[in-house]
Amino acid sequence: MKCLFLLKIEGMRKLSKLISAARLIIHQPSLLNLIINENDVWKKTVDKKYSLGAGLPVIDLETLFPEFRVEIPVFSFLDGGSLPTDIALLMNLAKTFNGCSYFEIGTWRGESVVNVAENVGTCFTLNLTDEEMRSIGMSEEYIAQTGMFSKNKNNIIHLRGNSRHFDFAGLKRKFDLIFIDGDHHYDSVKNDTHQVFKHLVHDQSIVVWHDYARNPETVRFEVFAGILDGLPDFRHHNLYHVGNTLSAVYLNNNVLPTYPLKETNPPDHYFTLEITRKKMQ
Question: Which among 169, 188, 223, 266 has the fewest CB atoms less than 10 Å away?
Answer without folding.
Answer: 266
